[in-house]
Amino acid sequence: MPATALRVELGWRAGPGVPDADASALLLVGGKVRSDDDFVFYNQPAHSSGAVRHEGKRNTGDRVTDTLLVDLARVEPGIETVIVAASSDGGAFGRVPDLYIEVKDAANGAVAARFDSAGATSETAFVLGEFYRRQGAWKFRAVGQGYSSGLEGLATDYGITVDEPQHTAPVPPAATAPPAAPPVTAPPVPAARPAAPPQPAAPPAPVRLTKVTLTKAAPSVSLTKQGGTSGTLHVNLNWEVRKQFSGWAAKLGRPVAMHSDLDLDLCALYELTDGSKGVVQALGNAFGSLHRPPFIHLDGDDRTGAVATGENLTVNLDHQHLFRRVLIFVTVYEGARSFADLHATVTLRPQHGAPIDFSLDECTVPSTVCALALITNTGGDLVVRREARYLVPERGVSPQRTVDHAYGWGMNWTPGRK
C-alpha cells in the first residue's frame, strides 16, 4: 500500500431488481476477531481504535457505492489482517452487476488496487479482499471467497456472536424423590459461612444484523412496529464532498463553490401535542434539551461529515407520546452555494429496533436546504418517512423559512447567528 489512509469503495451498477449490497470489515488475530467489537458494518460503523470506519452509501446515476475508511497507521499492533467483505440484501450476488472493490489513497484519490468480482451465482456474502502485514508493511490482495449464508454466515465464521431468536427448551418433569430418612440429631458445630461463589460476568450482547433502508419505492417505516418506542433515537448525517475547488456545475448552469470548510447544519422542526412549535439548530444556539421539552438535543456543530462524529441529533422516545411531528432537515451554512456534488447518508438509530438509513439523491437544483426525514405520531403509531427533498429558497428568504413554508409549520423567524 502506497499510503496508510485509504478509502475502500464497494461498487456496483444499480437497476430494477438489483439487490442492495453492504460493505463491512473484520479485524483479525489468528484468523478470528478478538471480540464482536472487531466487526465494522452498518450497525457498528466505527472501530474503537479509529482504524476502520463505515462511511455509508452514495448514489451517482446508475452507480451505487458503499465506502469504508481504513487508516492502517491506527490498526493496533496485534491485528494481523483486516478483511473487506460484502453482503447482499434482497437477492444473491448473481443479480448484482459490475461488482468491484477499489482501494484509493484517501488524500488524493489515486487508485492503489482494484478487484472486479465476476461469476457470482447464489452467494449472498463475499470476502473480496484483505489487508495484511508483511515484513513491516501493509499489503492488499484479492480473495473472492463466497458464502451462501449471508452476512450472518460470514460473521460467525470469523468468530462473531450473532443475535438470533431464542427458542425455549421444554422443561422436563421433575423426578419423584424417595421418602427422606429421619434426621439424626447431633450437637451443633459452629461452621464458617461459605463464601459466595463469584458471579460470572454478563456475556456481551450479540451483534444485530437487521436494518431498514428507505428508498423512493419504500419510503416509510413504523418505529412502533419495530419496537422503537422508548429510549433514544440517534440521528446522524455524514457527507463527502468530491470537489475541493470552485467550478461550474453543468446541470445548474452557474458557478458552485465547494470548499473543504463546508459547514452543514443538521436541524429539526418540532410540533408537540400541546401545540407548541420550535426549531433545534446550531444557529442561535438553539441546541434543545433531551430531558425537558422539546426532548430533542443537537450534540454540536461539525464540519467534517465523518460518520464517527458528523452532525448528530438525539430524540428522547420515552416522551414520544408528546410528539405530533418532527422534521429533520439540513442547511448549508457556509462553504457552498448548493448541495451540488455533495454525497450524504442519513442514519436513524433507535435504541430499540433496527437502524434506518437512506442516501440523498443527487442535487440538480440550486438548493441550500434539504428536508431529510419526517417523523409523525398518528394514533400512537410513530412513523419515519424518507423525504430527501431539496428546496430552493427565494431571494432574501432563509433556508429555515423555506422549509417551514413547504411543510406548513407556520412559525415566525428572525435573523440569528452562531
TrEMBL record:
InterPro entries, from UniProt? Stress/Tellurium_Resist (IPR051324), Tellurite_resistance_TerA (IPR017115), TerD (IPR003325)
Residue stretches of biased makeup (Pro residues): 170-205
> Region Disordered: what ranges?
165-205
Domain TerD, by residue range, is: 4-158
Give the superkingdom in one word.
Answer: Bacteria
Q: Identify the Pfam families for this entry.
A: TerD
Q: Which family does it belong to?
A: Belongs to the CAPAB/TerDEXZ family.
User: Which PANTHER family does the entry link to?
Assistant: CAMP-BINDING PROTEIN 1-RELATED (PTHR32097), GENERAL STRESS PROTEIN 16U (PTHR32097:SF4)
Name the UniProt record assigns to this protein: TerD family protein
